[in-house]
Amino acid sequence: MSIAAVIATALVVVATLLIVATVIALWRAPDAVTRANLMGPTTGVAAPLLIIAKVVYDAADGITPNSLIRAVLAILGLLIVASVSGFYMGRSLQETARERAEAADA
């Protein structure tokens, strides 16, 4: 097993532990807003770690500029989409919670 494969395996294990921790936290979360906020470790750290692990594993055979650029663009796209979608999901969940509270008071 090459050093690149060992590093890639370690990155995948760390990403898997983050995903498992997120799933456990999602099961224990009290409401939808908290659940939406708990997705941060998976979308912000674990998914980019998996992309980096793929690049490190492929680097053993020689890294090409094409694969490096694709990995950087994939990580940037993932982080941008995750942050924008998290913002909109949080706003909609907060509005839904407010409407339910108003309906319960009426």
UniProtKB/TrEMBL annotation:
<feature type="transmembrane region" description="Helical">
    <location>
        <begin position="6"/>
        <end position="26"/>
    </location>
</feature>
<keyword id="KW-1133">Transmembrane helix</keyword>
<feature type="transmembrane region" description="Helical">
    <location>
        <begin position="38"/>
        <end position="57"/>
    </location>
</feature>
<keyword id="KW-0472">Membrane</keyword>
<dbReference type="InterPro" id="IPR005133">
    <property type="entry name" value="PhaG_MnhG_YufB"/>
</dbReference>
<keyword id="KW-0812">Transmembrane</keyword>
<dbReference type="GO" id="GO:0015297">
    <property type="term" value="F:antiporter activity"/>
</dbReference>
<feature type="transmembrane region" description="Helical">
    <location>
        <begin position="69"/>
        <end position="90"/>
    </location>
</feature>
<dbReference type="GO" id="GO:0098662">
    <property type="term" value="P:inorganic cation transmembrane transport"/>
</dbReference>
<protein>
    <submittedName>
        <fullName>Putative monovalent cation/H+ antiporter subunit G</fullName>
    </submittedName>
</protein>
<dbReference type="Pfam" id="PF03334">
    <property type="entry name" value="PhaG_MnhG_YufB"/>
</dbReference>
